């Protein structure tokens, strides 16, 4: 198979079946180019547990240690700072903690700030200051994880778990892209699964 980085036909694909804590049955795909060393891994979750919302009120530094399991169909929200981490076609699974989620958000805001106009730069600075206070346990906030397939979670004390109904689940992004070869449309391309209408 040709490498997407260098074009040489030295790309090797490996599939590994796994059973992971918090996630369940999964398939890991790994692509490695023997020529340029390009590597890409992805985790495909093979189980669906039903649409679910997890909510955590983070009111102290102790709650920052709560585990966050985000599947490639999971959405993470922090309403107080207007942050939504939604799945896309290149979404990856990860397991971290609340502080790790805040660090990921800080990294993105820092990148935006680098090339921003003055007003956006100042908003980024204020947001980074708030995130620092959150990481220190000095500013309370809520962390919400939603997944139309139930493969994401918050694991810790005082976590609220709610089953989502079909209408709520339909509004969530899934990050899925499929090809429907039975449709007569151009290229037969369409997004499927629960998605924002």
Question: Can I get a quick summary?
Answer:
With 197 residues, this protein is α+β, with helices and mostly antiparallel strands. It is built from 3 helices and 13 strands; from the N terminus they run ββββββββααβββαββ. The strands form 4 sheets. A 5-stranded antiparallel β-sheet has the order 7-6-9-4-11, with no helix packed on it. A 3-stranded antiparallel β-sheet has the order 1-2-3, with no helix packed on it. A 3-stranded antiparallel β-sheet has the order 8-5-10.
Secondary structure: elements and pairs:
Layout: E1 11-20, E2 24-33, E3 39-45, E4 52-58, E5 67-70, E6 75-78, E7 83-85, E8 94-97, H1 98-114, H2 118-135, E9 141-147, E10 153-155, E11 159-163, H3 166-170, E12 178-179, E13 189-190
Antiparallel strand pairs: 1-2, 2-3, 4-9, 4-11, 5-8, 5-10, 6-7, 6-9, 12-13
Helix pairs in contact: 1-2
